[in-house]
Amino acid sequence: MARRSAWGRTSTRRAAWRSGDTGSLLRWFQLLIERYRECPELAWGDYTVLDNGHHAVLAHRCDVDGATVVVAHNLCDTAVDVELTLTGLEDQELTDLPEDASVKSQ
User: Fold this and answer.
1) How far apart are CA 77 and CA 70, in angstroms?
2) What is the CB neighbour count within 10 angstroms for residue 53?
3) Cα(73)–Cα(50) distance, rounded to whole angstroms?
4) pLDDT tier at 51 (50, 70, 90 boundaries)?
5) In 4-101, where does DSSP find H-type helix?
6) pLDDT confidence bin for 59, thresholds 50/70/90
């Protein structure tokens, strides 16, 4: 059941409208939830915080049953580049999950 907001719109209409906007915060959270469900490493893996040299970036890896997910959270208001050392993942193909793009590790 939809409730009316202070602006006279129903919350379900706003959510439906926003879900079609690929740049919306709602769509970003939907994407994060999808990736979380696709990656059991995030729920069941052993977490390791990774040194990245930047005070506003939290990077960590999650390992379980021979699979690894690496996540970097940029907590500052500008884009930054960080370099991560991923021991045991040399010469592996890495996938940028939000973008579905593959890159080769070095």
Assistant:
1) 21
2) 11
3) 11
4) very high
5) 11-19, 25-38, 40-44
6) very high
Taking residue 80's Cβ as centre, other Cβ atoms within 10 Å add up to: 14
Closest CA to 43 of 21, 62, 68: 62
User: What pLDDT shows up at residue 36?
Assistant: 82
Distance CA 76, CA 57 (A): 8
Instruction: Choose among 58, 54, 57, 63: nearest CA to 86.
Output: 63
pLDDT at 62: 93
Tokens 């890159």 belong to residue: 103
Name which of 56, 81, 52, 84 is nearest 68 in CA terms. Answer: 84
Under DSSP, the state recorded for 10 is: B
Tokens of 85: 């050392």
User: How many CA atoms lie less than 13 Å away from 77 in the CB half-sphere?
Assistant: 0
Which residue's entry shows tokens 């709602």? 26
